[in-house]
Write a structure and sequence with these properties.
binds glutamine, 43% helix, 12% strand, binds zinc ion
């Protein structure tokens, strides 16, 4: 008998119940008991769904009120000392850690591996102590057991927990805490055993990273200790192949290992060879990271031989927790039937897993109708003219090797652009968006609901553009923008106008805490039926003699922030997106727009987990960006924008994008980030952000001057632009105008000093 299980389920509930309960709780409209009841409802529904799909156990402990890493901080009583909470914390303190309070800023947040989920980063130092507060898990285990489910508790493993934390002081080695942390885990595991638990899943996804040897070596010691509690351990890795960590993982003193059979499928044969004869192998055969129906016949072709070898030591599962896909297709009434038949959200993945389990244990014939339906859906997707557009394919195939090269090198372009725009030294600009006022959002919502006629909507947006342009001109900015009033979201706005994209009504995935995002679904060959931004930009340009910068979202960011096709390489999809954007750039240029910004805030996020895979990614990502940008004349200026990430280790790749100007977020690091650009002698122009747009605080002219002086010390002054860190859509107008007035004053002061 092959067993089936999931590593975790979506935490947000089918209609974002968690989000709404949390927000009501934080507003004081729902008491703690009410919040707990809502959370329990989500968990119970998840467990019921897993049991109904025929799984052999249910995942418990995968739920979190805000974030699983934070829940482990609570579970092990290691809240940052700066909060002064002590070892036992309740929900009130838990939310203060997540959201900050009057005295303490919130714990930092960062991306969970290469997903679009953000976890809270534990803080570790030499004084960190761990005190088990088992209620955070044991209560949920009891809840599942009381409801009659066979519970398989899920824990983030001690090494992943420590590794993903940050040291509170430079040079402190988090690994030094392992021996202090392990006894708390052992006590917890012993308590689980006493509660009648047979298997515990220990997630150690850092096994898919490049691990320092000391960390890899620590796994043996860690698992050895955990094992002493006497429960069976399933060590789970996911998000990639294990490579140099594979042998380590398979030889650990645990009772079973879970491998990502989708991203690490190529390692299964090797794993099978190395797997000790007593161990369970759980294989993640369904893609937990994407929204497509898995090819069940192909999965069975790969899994049946494993079953022949392993018998009941084979478990099957999705590759990773299902928290990374939307909850269910059931509420989708507007997706057309054909497209819907190609998709599988968490509920449908669960069903597919049940089918797979039945096929393995009772033969394919036992589930013939389900397999048949799956096969038909896949065949229709493979052949559909909605997916495959011969024109797009031909265009990609015919793309010349030099299609990503500008006509002239940067120096010649710079001269042509200087002659055309005659901008002052330290030119000022913004990143694109201006405040999205309630008026704007209301107009858009009413237009979408059909309550506002198109002509009236266009008029409302034109009025907003006019306001934005007038205000920028009055502030004395040098390069203006139209303000992006018409855009809800920088990916969705373009996706809605491109062929190949679809949008769900309810396909939410947790981004962090109560925040969910609904990623577009890129299902087919991408093309641009008609111009997307030209009218708005042309209108803005008609209102001013200063240059208006056109605003586009780049191909890599479109790719990163969508669910994309699994039937062709990401590189090909990126190239199709690039061609669509290239068309838009050409139309903007033809309409007289001299400066175009192609935003790539997700460029860095796309980096693979393993360094060895970086060059290949940077290669195709760079080409996609350049294909989007390169067709323009020398005197058309291409900007790009990136924010909130490390750049120093990919500077050559950023330079290779060959944007004439890059604007980046730097104020939070006090311009330190720029030092790398200086040392690397970044060849083109740079606009380091001179103020943080996340706060309503208006920075003083002197502050911004000081940052610009710091920048001018490492970057040639003639290459420097002056701009905020990022877009201003979350701000209000008064603070925006005040901050930009100061920014213009700071730039003017710089000009007086540096003018020759
Ligand atoms: N042009 C976008 C804006 O200003 C860029 C947003 C981003 O970097 N995430 O809103
Ligand atoms: Zn930004």
């Amino acid at each position: 008998m092959a067993l089936a299980h999931v590593l975790g389920a979506p935490r947000i509930g089918p209609h974002r119940e968690l989000k709404f309960a949390l927000e009501r709780h934080w507003r004081g409209e729902l008491d703690e008991a009410g919040l707990r009841a809502a959370a329990s409802g989500i968990r119970q529904a998840n467990w019921r769904a897993q049991a109904e799909a025929g799984l052999d156990c249910v995942a418990v402990g995968d739920f979190a009120y805000y974030d699983p890493m934070l829940t482990h901080v609570a579970l092990f009583g290691c809240a940052p000392a700066r909060f002064g909470f002590g070892a036992r914390i309740g929900l009130a303190e838990y939310f203060q850690l997540a959201r900050g309070n009057a005295d303490c800023h919130a714990m930092e947040m960062t991306k969970w591996f290469d997903t679009n989920y953000h976890y809270l980063v534990p803080e570790f130092g030499p004084d960190t102590a761990f005190t088990l507060d088992g209620r955070w898990l044991l209560d949920e285990v009891a809840e599942a057991q009381t409801a009659g489910f066979k519970a398989k508790p899920v824990l983030i493993g001690p090494l992943t927990f420590l590794y993903l934390g940050k040291p509170k002081q430079a040079g402190f080695d988090r690994l030094d805490l392992l021996d202090r942390l392990l006894p708390a885990y052992v006590r917890l595991l012993a308590a689980l055993r006493a509660a009648g638990i047979e298997w515990v899943q220990i997630d150690e996804p850092i096994l898919s990273l490049d691990l320092p040897p000391a960390w890899r070596a620590a796994f043996e010691r860690s698992c050895h200790a955990l094992r002493s509690a006497g429960v069976k351990l399933l060590l789970a890795s996911y998000f990639g192949p294990l490579r140099d960590n594979l042998l380590t993982a398979l030889q650990l003193p645990v009772d079973g290992v879970h491998l990502d059979g989708v991203r690490g499928g190529g390692e299964l044969a090797q794993a099978l060879d190395w797997l000790p004869a007593t161990k369970v192998l759980s294989v993640g055969v369904l893609d937990g990271r994407n929204v497509w129906c898995d090819d069940l016949a192909a999965v069975l072709d790969r899994t049946e031989p494993l079953q022949a070898r392993l018998g009941d030591r084979l478990w099957v599962a999705p590759s990773c927790s299902l928290a990374h896909v939307p909850v269910s297709l059931a509420p989708e009434t507007r997706l057309d039937a054909e497209l819907k038949s190609w998709l599988a959200f968490a509920a449908e993945k669960l069903e597919a897993l049940g089918t797979l389990r039945a096929a393995l244990n009772r033969g394919r014939a036992a589930v013939a109708p389900a397999l048949d339906m799956n096969g038909r859906a896949l065949a229709s997707r493979r052949q559909s003219p909605r997916v495959h557009d011969a024109v797009v394919a031909a265009r990609v195939a015919a793309l010349r090797a030099d299609a990503d090269r500008r006509h002239s090198p940067f120096a010649a372009r710079q001269a042509a652009q200087r002659a055309r725009f005659a901008l002052p030294l330290f030119p000022t600009t913004t990143i694109g968006s201006f405040p999205q006022t309630p008026d704007i959002r209301q107009a858009r919502a009413r237009f979408k609901r059909g309550e506002l006629a198109e002509a009236a909507y266009v008029q409302a947006m034109r009025t907003e553009i006019e306001t934005a342009v007038r205000r920028q001109a009055a502030l004395g900015l040098d390069v203006l923008v139209h303000g992006e009033a018409e855009r809800n979201d920088m990916v969705e706005y373009f996706g809605e106008q491109l062929a190949g994209f679809a949008f769900s009504q309810n396909g939410w995935v947790q981004s962090y805490g109560s925040r969910c995002v609904k990623q577009p679904i890129l299902y087919g060959d991408v093309s641009r039926p008609r111009p997307m931004t030209v009218e708005w930009t042309r209108y803005a340009q008609s209102l001013t003699g200063k240059p208006v910068k056109g605003m586009l979202t780049g191909p890599v960011t479109m790719l990163q922030w969508s669910f994309v096709r699994d039937d062709q390489p990401r590189a090909v999809t990126a190239l199709q997106l690039a061609l669509a954007i290239r068309d838009e750039v050409a139309d903007l240029e033809a309409a007289g727009i001299g400066i175009v910004q192609i935003d790539e805030p997700a460029y860095r996020e796309g980096l693979p987990l393993r360094r060895a895979d970086w060059p290949a990614y940077l290669d195709w990502a760079g080409r996609a960006f350049r294909v989007a940008a390169a067709a323009v004349r020398d005197d058309t200026q291409i900007h790009t924008h990136m924010c909130y990430s490390e750049f120093n280790d990919i500077l050559p790749a950023i330079a290779a994008m060959d944007a004439d100007v890059i604007t980046i977020e730097t104020s939070r690091s006090d311009m330190e980030l720029l030092r790398g650009f200086g040392e690397f002698a970044y060849p083109n122009e740079i606009g380091p952000g001179v103020y943080d747009i996340h706060s309503p605080r208006v920075p003083s002219v002197e502050e911004m001057r000081r940052l610009l002086d710091k920048a001018a010390a490492v970057i040639p002054p003639g290459h420097l632009w002056v701009n905020p860190d990022c877009g201003l859509k979350t701000r209000d107008w008064p603070e925006t105008e005040a901050a930009l007035a100061g920014m213009v004053a700071a730039a003017r002061a710089m000009r007086r000093v540096y003018a020759i």
